[in-house]
Amino acid sequence: MSRKLVKKRGKKVGAAPGTLVHVGDKSEAAAHIRVIAYDQEHFQDQRLAEPAACPPFKTGPRISWINVDGVHEVAKVEALGGCLGLHPLVMEDILNTDQRPKIEDYDDYLYIVIKMLRYEEQRHEIRAEQVSLVLGRHFVLSFQEHPGDVFEGVRERLRHGRRIRFLGTDYLAYALLDAVVDNYFSLLENIGDQVEKLEEELIANPSPDTLARIHHFKREMLLLRKSVWPLREVLGSLTREEHALISAETRLFLRDVHDHCIHVLDTVETLRDLLAGMLDIYLSSVSNRMNEIMKVLTIMATIFIPLTFIAGVYGMNFTHMPELNWRYGYAGAWLVMIAVAFGLLLFFRRKKWL
Amino acid sequence: MSRKLVKKRGKKVGAAPGTLVHVGDKSEAAAHIRVIAYDQEHFQDQRLAEPAACPPFKTGPRISWINVDGVHEVAKVEALGGCLGLHPLVMEDILNTDQRPKIEDYDDYLYIVIKMLRYEEQRHEIRAEQVSLVLGRHFVLSFQEHPGDVFEGVRERLRHGRRIRFLGTDYLAYALLDAVVDNYFSLLENIGDQVEKLEEELIANPSPDTLARIHHFKREMLLLRKSVWPLREVLGSLTREEHALISAETRLFLRDVHDHCIHVLDTVETLRDLLAGMLDIYLSSVSNRMNEIMKVLTIMATIFIPLTFIAGVYGMNFTHMPELNWRYGYAGAWLVMIAVAFGLLLFFRRKKWL
Amino acid sequence: MSRKLVKKRGKKVGAAPGTLVHVGDKSEAAAHIRVIAYDQEHFQDQRLAEPAACPPFKTGPRISWINVDGVHEVAKVEALGGCLGLHPLVMEDILNTDQRPKIEDYDDYLYIVIKMLRYEEQRHEIRAEQVSLVLGRHFVLSFQEHPGDVFEGVRERLRHGRRIRFLGTDYLAYALLDAVVDNYFSLLENIGDQVEKLEEELIANPSPDTLARIHHFKREMLLLRKSVWPLREVLGSLTREEHALISAETRLFLRDVHDHCIHVLDTVETLRDLLAGMLDIYLSSVSNRMNEIMKVLTIMATIFIPLTFIAGVYGMNFTHMPELNWRYGYAGAWLVMIAVAFGLLLFFRRKKWL
Amino acid sequence: MSRKLVKKRGKKVGAAPGTLVHVGDKSEAAAHIRVIAYDQEHFQDQRLAEPAACPPFKTGPRISWINVDGVHEVAKVEALGGCLGLHPLVMEDILNTDQRPKIEDYDDYLYIVIKMLRYEEQRHEIRAEQVSLVLGRHFVLSFQEHPGDVFEGVRERLRHGRRIRFLGTDYLAYALLDAVVDNYFSLLENIGDQVEKLEEELIANPSPDTLARIHHFKREMLLLRKSVWPLREVLGSLTREEHALISAETRLFLRDVHDHCIHVLDTVETLRDLLAGMLDIYLSSVSNRMNEIMKVLTIMATIFIPLTFIAGVYGMNFTHMPELNWRYGYAGAWLVMIAVAFGLLLFFRRKKWL
Amino acid sequence: MSRKLVKKRGKKVGAAPGTLVHVGDKSEAAAHIRVIAYDQEHFQDQRLAEPAACPPFKTGPRISWINVDGVHEVAKVEALGGCLGLHPLVMEDILNTDQRPKIEDYDDYLYIVIKMLRYEEQRHEIRAEQVSLVLGRHFVLSFQEHPGDVFEGVRERLRHGRRIRFLGTDYLAYALLDAVVDNYFSLLENIGDQVEKLEEELIANPSPDTLARIHHFKREMLLLRKSVWPLREVLGSLTREEHALISAETRLFLRDVHDHCIHVLDTVETLRDLLAGMLDIYLSSVSNRMNEIMKVLTIMATIFIPLTFIAGVYGMNFTHMPELNWRYGYAGAWLVMIAVAFGLLLFFRRKKWL
Fold first, then answer.
1. CA distance C120 to chain D (A)
2. What are phi and psi of A232, to 5 degrees?
3. Interface confidence (ipTM) of the complex
C-alpha cells in the first residue's frame, strides 16, 4: 500500500515477459489461500495449504472462490496459476501490483484488475491495494496482498445461502466488484465530510495549513481518479460486450455497479472543482488580509508623517523664528496638527478605507 | 433534500444487491399513494391506502398514474413494486435517492431517474429531490420523497380532458419530464437575475462578501450541472433509441424536451464562464484598490520624508551652524522645503500617479 | 432583443406542450406579413392582411416567401401555421424566441431556428433576434419579431431575376441562411477592430476601465458563441444528411455557408484566447506599476531614514556631546550624510532598481 | 498579407453567392500567369498573357501546372476559371483570400485551400498568404496573391526531369503541399529558437518587455494553429478517402505530409504550453523581485525607526531630564542604539530575511 | 540527442521526397551493423561490414535481427534499405530522427518509429533517441544513432535460447517495444522520486530555485508526453488491427505493452497535475512570506511613528511650553509613550497579527 507516485520495479525492468517477479509493497504475513466452495445445498470454507490441491476446484460441479492473501509469495501464485491454466502474462500481472484497472478476455476466463481503497484516518490518506480477479466457468480467483478486505459481506451472504448461492461465478464476481465500488462511497463520504469542514474553516479562519490541506486533498483526488477512471471502462466493457462467461441476468447487475462507478467519478470531479474554487478563495483571502494590514500602516503613517514634520519645523534652532516667541505659538501648533489629523481622517473615510 | 456533497449510505455499504434500504433525507410526512386513472372519457383521482390494491392498474384498460410521496416507507414501496413486477434492482434504486439521472430498459417497462430541483430563496440554495419514473404499458409510476411537486399543471390538464387524455403512457411520462425540465428554466431565471445583480455590485462596490457569493454560485452551478448533464443523455436515449414503449409521435415531443435540456446546460455553462470572469474582475479590483492605497502612502511619505529631514538638520545643536544666525534663515528653510514638495508633486504628476 | 442571461417565460412554465404563448421581447410595431411569390418569369411582392389567405402559396406552382415581422401576435402566427399545416410544437417554438439554433425534419417541411445578430454601436453590445425558417416544397416561411433585417440583398436579387429565380425553395432558404451568416462576419470585423484598439490601449495606458472592457468583450464572445456553435450543427446536418427537400446542387452551396460558420467560430475562439491573454497582460501590468511605486517609496525612504536619524542624533540635548563643539562638526555631519546617501544610491544601482 | 484579426469584406456582405469580389490584401504587382507543361520527355515553362489561351492545358496529353500570381485581378481569374470549367463557388473562394484551409471534391477536380506562411524577421510576425490549388486530371492550378513562393524546389525538380516528371497531377499537387508544410518547419525552427532565447532571458533578466514578447508569441501561436489545424483535416481527407484523382502510390506520399502536419501541430502545442509556463515564471519572478524590494525597505525602516525615536527622546527640551547631564549619557545613548540595531539584525537573520 | 525544441533540418527543406538526408544529432562513432540470426537450434551474432551482404537475411529460413548504430552514415542505410527492398519514404524517415512515433503498413513489412528515452542524471534532463523498426517476414531491422541501448536483455534471452527463439519476427519486435516501454517506467521512477523530494522541499523551504525546478519538470513532462502519446496509438494499432505479420499469440503480448504505455501516460498526467498544484503552493507561499514581512514592518512602524511624533513635539523650541517645566514632565512623556505602545500592541493582538 505504498504511497510512492511511481512504484519501484527493481530487477523487473528488462526481464522477459512472463517473468514472475513481485512488484509493490510486501505484506509481512505469510501467504494464505482460502477456498469457499458452494452450490445450492452445500457450503464449505477451508484453507488450502498446497496450491497443487486445486484441480477439483477447476472443473466443478461446485463453484469455488479461491482467495489468495499475499501475492508476494511468487511460488504459490505460480503453482496455483499453473494448475488452473492461467496464461503467463496473467500471472505476471497478478504479481505486478502496480497495474491500471483493466479487463482481459482469455476466452476460458476473464482477468480483471481493480483497486481496493482504504482510507487511513491518521494521515488522511487513501491507500490502494490491487485486487486481481480471474473469473472462470467454475471458479473465481481473487488475489490480494494484505490480510483484511471488503468482502466480508459477500462471505456472509454465501454462508447464509442467499440468492448468491443459486447463481454462477459471474454473479460472484459481480458481488466482489460491487463490494469494492460500494467501499468507494464510504471513502468519499469520509473525504466529503472533511472537505466540507475545510470549507468552513477556510471562511472562518484561513491559515497556511488550510492551503496545505487543500493541496493534500487535491492530490488524493488525483490518485483516486487514477484508480476509478479506468475501472469505469472495465465495468462498461462487462456491461456492453458479449463475454461468454457473463449471463444476461448478471449483466443487469453489472450495469448497476457501472452506474455507481460513474457516480463515484462524478463526485470526485465535483470535489476537485470545489477544491479548485477553495484554492481561489484562500488566495484571495490572503490578499484581503494583506490589504487590511496595508490600510492600517497607511493610515497611521499618513497621519503622523505630516504631524512629525510640523513638530520638526518648530524644533529647528534658527535664531529668528517669530512663531516660537508668540504667546499662543505652542497651542497654535497643536491646533494645526489636530486639524491636519482630522482632515486626513476625513479623507480616509471618504475613500471608504475606514 | 440534503446539501451534503456525498450522502450517507449508513448500513447500506456491503449489503447484498437488491437489499431495500432507504438512502437520503427523510420526509416527516407519512407515505401517500395517489392514483389518477383515466381514458378519453373517464377521469378518476383517488388515494390508494393499500399498495396491494394495485393489480387493476397494471393491466388497464385505463391508464394509471400512480404517484408515491415518501419513499422512505420501504415496506410500501416494496409491496407496490412487487405487485407491479419491478426488478429488485429497480426497487433498490427507487429507495436510494442519491442516484445520477439515468434510464434503464427492462423490456416490460422503462425505469427513469431524474432530479426535481427547487430553489430555496432564503439560503439561495438549490435543493434536489430524486424522482423515479417507471413507464409501463398501462401505468406510469412516480416516486418522490417530499410532498409538493412541479406536476400540478399535468394533473390539471388530465382533469380537463385535453390532448393528454387521448394519448398513451409514453405521453404522460413525457409530460412529467417536460414539467421537471421546464422548472429548471424558472430556477435559472432566478439565479440568472441574481448573478446579474452580483455583477453590478461587483463593479460598483466589491467586498469580500461578493467573493463569497461568487464562490457560492459557482458551487450551485457545479451541483446543477451534476443533475442536468446526465439527464441530457437520458433524454437523448429516449429520442434516439427504439424503446418499444415510446411511440414515434411522442418521440417528437421528447426531442423538444431534449432541446430544452441542452438549452439549460448551455445556460449553466454560460453562467459558469461568467462567474469565472467575475472572479477575475474581483481579484483584480482588489489589487487595484491595493494600488490606490499604496499610491497615497507613497506620495505622503515621499513628500514628507525629505522635508522632515531638512527640519531635522536645522534642529541639530552644533555650535557652528552659520545658517541658524542668518536673517532669513528660517524663511529660506521654508522656501527650500516648499520647493522640494512641489518638485516631488510634479514628479508624481509626470508619472501619472496623481 | 433582451440582454437578460435567461429570458422570462412568465406563465409558460407548466403549460401543456403546444400551448401558444409568446416568450421574449415584444416589438411595438404591429405584425406584418409580406409575401414574395415568384417563378422564372414572374415576381410579385405583396402584403398579406389576412393569414387565412395563404392557401395558394402552399401548393404552388410559384414559390412563395412568406415573411412575418412581429411573432408576438400569437393569433396571426397560429392562423398562418394552421393554414400551412405546421405541427403544434413548431408553432410553439416559433413563438418562444429564446431557443437554441436547431433543425427539425417534419418530412413535409424542415423547421430551422437561427439567430440574427445586430451590433449596437452605442452600448458595444450584440443583440440577438430569433429567426424561424420553415422550408416547404413550395414555400419558405420566415418569422422575426422586429422590423428590419439582413435579407434586403436577397429581396433585391429576387426582384432582378437572377439565378435565385430559377431554383427551388431550398436555394431560397440557403440564401437567407447565407445572409445571416455573412452578417456575422461584418459584426466580427467590428468587434475585431475594437479588440485590436483595446490591445493597443492596454499596452499604452492600461486603466481599470480597460479591464471592464476586456470583461465586456469576453462576455459578448460567450453570448456569440452560444448563438453560433449550435448553428454549426444545423448547417452540418443540412450539408450531410439526406433531407428530401434539399437538392444536391443546393447542398454544395450549403457546404459553403457551413465553412463560413466554422470560420466564424474559429474567429470567436481566437478572440476569446486573445482576450484571455489580454487579461493576463493587464493583471501583470498592474503589478508592474505597483512595483514601480514601491521602488520609488523604498528608495526615498531608505535614503532619508538614516539621514534623518543622523540629524536626530545631533539634535539631542546631552550636555556632553563633544562633536557639537568641533570647529567643522556641522560640515562633518553633512559630509557623513552625503556619503551615506551616495552609498545607498550606489547600492540601488547595483541592484538595478534605478 | 494583412495582420487584421478579421479581414474586411467590404461590399461582399449581402452579395449573391458566386459574386466575384476580391477579399484581402492586394499585391501591387500586375497579375502574372505562368504555365509549366511537361511529360516524361518534354518540359516547357512559359508566361500566359491571355487566360483564354488555356484550353490546350485542359485536356492534355501533357501535364500543366498553371500558377497565377495576383488573384486581385478578378477578370483574369474569372476568364481562366471559366475556360477550365470551375464552379462559381470555387472562383468565389479563390478570390476570397480569408478562407480556412479546406478541401472540396467537385468530381472532375479537387479544390484545396492552404496557407503559405512567411516569417517576417523584423516584426517577428508570421504572415499568411492563401494558396488555392485546383487538381484536375491534366492540370494543376495554383493561385497566390504576392510574387515569391516556396515552390522553387518543385520547379527545379520538374526542370531536371526527376521522378516527378513520370507521375501524374496528383503527385505534382502533393509536391506543392509538401513544400508548403516543409516551410512550416523552417518557420517553427525560427520561432523555437527565439522562444528558447526568451526563456533564457526570462531567467537571467525578466523585464516588462519579456512579458510583451511572451504575449506576442502566444498570439503568433494562436494564428499559426488557426492555419495548421484545419490543414490536418484536409490532408487526412486526402490520405483516407477515395478521391478518384489520387492514386494509391501518391496516397503513401500524402500520408507522409499528413504526419509532418501533425508534427507541426504537436510542436505548436508544445510551444503554447511552454509559453504558458513562461508566463507563470515571469509573474512569479515579478513578485519575487517585489519581495526583495520590500525586504530592503523593511530592514532599513525597521532598524532606523526605533533609533530615530531614541534620538528624538533625547532631543526633547524638558527641564528635568537627568540623563542629559550624565557624564556618559551621550555614549550610553549610542550604546543603546547600537544594541537595538544589532538585536534587530539578529532577528532578521533568524527569520532568514538577510 | 539534441534538446532543441525544433530540430534543424538544414538543406532538407524544399528537397524532393525520398531525398536521403540525415536530420538530427550525429554520433561521433562510425556506423556499426550487427546481425543476430537464430532459429530454435542456432544462434549467431556477427558484425556486418558490408550492407550488400544482407540478402541471406532477407529470405530466411533463420530469423535475423539487423541492428544499425549510426544512421548518419547515409550510404550504409541506403545500401541496406535498397537490398531489403524498403520504400524510399521509409529510408527518408529512418534518416530523419525528428519524427513522431508512428506505424506504417507497407504490406511486406511494418515500419515503426519509437523514441528510446534516457535520463541524464547530471542535468536532470530526458534525452530522446529515435529508434526505427522494420518488421519483415524473416527479419527485424532496428536503427539507432548512438551506441548503447535498452535491448541488452533481449539479446541475453536470444543467446540463452528461451521462448523468444521459438517464435517469429513479430515476437522479436514485441520484445524490443517492450524493452523500450519498460525503460520508461524506470525513467518515471527516477523523476517521480525527484518530484516528491521537490514537494517536500517546497513545504519546508521554498526558494526561487524551487520554482525553476518545478518549471523544469513541467517542461520535461511536456517533452515526455510528446514521445509517449503517439506511441499509444502505434501500440493500439498493433493490438487492434489485422496486420498480416502479427500473430494472434503475439497480439496478446502487445496488448500488455499497450497497457503499460497507457499506464506511463497516466503517470505523466498525474505528475503534470501534481506539478501544477505545486506551482500554486509555491506562489501562495511566496505571498505568505510577503505578508509576514509586511506585518513586521507595519507593527514596527505603526508603534514607533506616534512615539517619535510625541518626542518631536517636546523637542519644539516654543518659548511658552508649560509641560517642559513640569517636575514630572519627562517621566509623564515616557508614560504616555509607553501607554501608546501598549495600546497598539493590544490592537495588533486583537487583530491576530501577533
1. 18
2. -55, -45
3. 0.77
Q: What is the DSSP string of D257-291?
A: HHHHHHHHHHHHHHHHHHHHHHHHHHHHHHHHHHH
Q: CATH second-level architecture of D292-350?
A: Up-down Bundle (1.20)
Is B12-284's fold the same as B293-350's? Answer: no
Number of C-beta neighbours around residue D338 at 10 A: 11
pLDDT in tens, E85-119: 899 889 989 998 888 899 998 889 999 999 999 88
Q: C241: which residues sit within 8 A by CB, 6+ positions away?
A: none
The sign of the CA dihedral A243, A245, A249, A252 is negative
Least CA distance to A274: which residue of chain B? B219
Residue in B111, B275, B304 to test binding to A, most A beta-carbons within 10 Å: B304
pTM above 0.90, yes or no: no
Residues of E in contact with A297 (CB under 8 A): 294, 297-298, 301-302
* Beta strands per DSSP E along chain C: 32-38, 43-47, 63-69, 102-105, 110-120, 125-135, 139-144
D210 pLDDT higher than 90: no
Closest alpha carbon within chain C to B277: C215
Q: Do C262 and D208 touch (CB under 8 A)?
A: no
Which chain B residues have a beta carbon less than 8 Å from that of A164? 16
Which CATH architecture best describes the domain C17-284? Answer: 2-Layer Sandwich (3.30)
Is the pLDDT higher at D334 or at E284? D334
Contact A13 E321 (CB under 8 A): no
Q: Is the peptide bond before D230 cis (omega within 30 degrees of 0)?
A: no
Residues of A in contact with E178 (CB under 8 A): 17
**Which secondary structure element, helix H or strand E, spans residue E175, and what is its range?**
helix E169-204
For residues D204-217, give the mean pLDDT. Answer: 85
Fold for B12-284, please state it. Answer: Beta Polymerase; domain 2 (3.30.460)
Structure-block grid coordinates of residue D78: 474569372
Domain boundaries of chain C, sorted by first residue? 17-284, 314-350
CATH homologous superfamily for the domain E295-350:
Magnesium transport protein CorA, transmembrane region (1.20.58.340)
CATH architecture group of domain A293-350: Up-down Bundle (1.20)
Topology annotation, domain A10-284: Beta Polymerase; domain 2 (3.30.460)
Residues whose CB falls within 8 Å of the CB of residue E172, separated by 6 or more in sequence, listed in order: E63, E65, E140, E154, E164
Which chains have at least 3 CB atom pairs separated by less than 8 Å from chain E?
A: A, D
Report the topology of domain E14-284: Beta Polymerase; domain 2 (3.30.460)
Distance of CA C169 to the CA centre of its chain: 30
φ and ψ at A201, to 5 degrees? -60, -40
